[in-house]
Amino acid sequence: MMARVSVPFTCGEGGGERRNNNFAGFESWLYSQRKRKRTVRDTLFYAKKFAYVLDSGDATPILTQVKPLSQKHVLSALANLSKYYGCYQRWNEIRRNYNLHWVKADSITHFERFFNEELTLETMLQRIKQMIAILPPQMGQIIKFGTLIGARCTEIIECVKLINNNNPEIFPRYYNRERQALEHFKFGDIFLRETKKCYISFVRDDILDIVKGIEKVPSRNAIGKACQRRGIKMEMHLTRKLFASWLRKEGVQAEVVDLLQGRVAPSILTRHYMVPAPSFKSDVLKAIEKLRERI
Length: 295
Known about the structure:
- The protein has helices spanning 15-20, 23-32, 37-50, 52-56, 60-65, 71-84, 88-97, 107-114, 121-134, 137-149, 153-163, 170-174, 188-191, 205-208, 220-229, 238-249, 254-260, 268-273, 280-294, and strands at residues 175-176, 181-182, 201-202.
- By secondary structure, it is mainly α.
- It has 2 domains: 15-97, DNA polymerase, domain 1 (Orthogonal Bundle), CATH 1.10.150; 112-294, Intergrase catalytic core (hpI Integrase, Chain A, Orthogonal Bundle).
- A hairpin with a 4-residue loop joins β1 and β2 (181-182).
């Protein structure tokens, strides 16, 4: 085991005791970084539990008490806490001394997922159709709509809220009728988070009609509880997987699918030289229409 860090603790005036009484300020700071409620909740939990590591310089508890695949949550929480108190360099010294790093899934995991029979197109279609059929109508409509835009669960919920916003100026700003697109990027505080982003979704008016008129949009948690009461799994994450898989099956360029799911590849080729086919929007809309017929 590496030697304990001996640098005196300097994370905020008043030391650990004062910091423990100021987590409300840390919580506000996390929200100012455009982090989701669930992310803030988890970050606060791990920050409170392991904040003393920043005082002591001893990261042994992280190594001995936390499973390797869960350590990333602790590391992220302490990284944010140290940034908030201006001692990020101190935290990096501790992390390096104990050889702590974010664990990524290895290539074999992706290989096994590729051949996972539970994630075939047909299987995902059936599981999504089951949720749509069994859940209350409005929840089923949201899941159907989510399958046709390929966004993440929380993004789908926020999208439906904006479509049904009572402010008459919101929807015309959100939906570009000429482009036939929901322009998420115009609401950066909602859709452009630090690590997860959602830029644009191509949709026609009839697809918007699926969720128009929903006045009280249920939360992700409410949909999960509704699934639980009906004895089915909450598998809203499959809507995003199905969307991407279906578009690729229909011949839509991988780079276009990535863009529609909030990913922009860092390669120079993609950023500066890759040009989408002229028909890419119509190709996407045709693929979405075929998917709609299946669900």
